[in-house]
Amino acid sequence: MTDIIGFEQFADEVQIAMKSRYPDDRVEIKRVTKNNGVIYTGITVSSEDEKVYPTMYLEPFYEETVNGSLTDELIDRMCGIYESRRVGNTLSLDHLCEYMAVKDRLRCKLINYEANKAILEDIPYRRFLDLAIVPYCIVMGSDIGGVLPGEASFVITYRNLEMWDVKADEVMEESIRNTLCEENPCITEMYELLKRLNPSLTQVAGDEMKKCPMYVMTTEGSNGAVSMIYEDKIKEFCDRIDSDVYVIPSSINEIILVPSREDTSSEMLNDMVKEINATQLEPVEVLSDHVYYFEKDAGYKEAV
What we know:
The chain is an alpha+beta fold. Helix content is 36%, strand content 23%. It is built from eleven helices and 13 strands. The radius of gyration is 22 Å and the shape is globular. The N and C termini lie far apart (55 Å).
């Protein structure tokens, strides 16, 4: 019988193997706290003159192994992936040290307040209902010489504020203003969305979906659940359908609007949210374990 190798041993063996592939570089295992207090284990490889280097998380690789065993083929693939993300010493982020260079790149997102109290000690934030609005900065590949594809981002911390010599309130205002102006959320009926993605689903459940319509609201960028702060847009939607709505935090990426009906209760919807969080989402994707209620004439109130 083959012994099952635990994750910690797997991580140690990856570090040893990577050190043999990169004998002149520094190879380190790092624990990184992500959204909702979830801790990932990553590995970094860097030379003395590298200012920026990627972190490759090991959990997905461990999950695809047989009994946690590390193979040469897996190490080859991990090294290939790491090399594709590595930028060496060609990348300079010196211009990000100036607030005026980054202020237009500031955006905000929503996270759960209670689940993130620890990391919020280091991050400026603003309470929104029982959630927290936190600022982050978008870094485009074209902004840094095109050495990175697409875009990346980093959450703003108090260390950034100190470096920029700027107050937390100013950064919060700028990040919220940029988000409201630039992200442009859209609202799409769930039936139409599923019809485009998987027509067979609408053939089976189409009639029920039309009887009890749901609407997906998300932004053009990432972290689409920040749509919740677009209260004017939600009010416009409520006026259009002439109904209050339940706001379902389906993940950090989007919300779902459900018109209020006599046969719809917050208790039923809360049970649905908890079921989805437990069975369909990764822990880092969870926003909240209950629904919110938006009155078209009064805004957010407690869901009952």
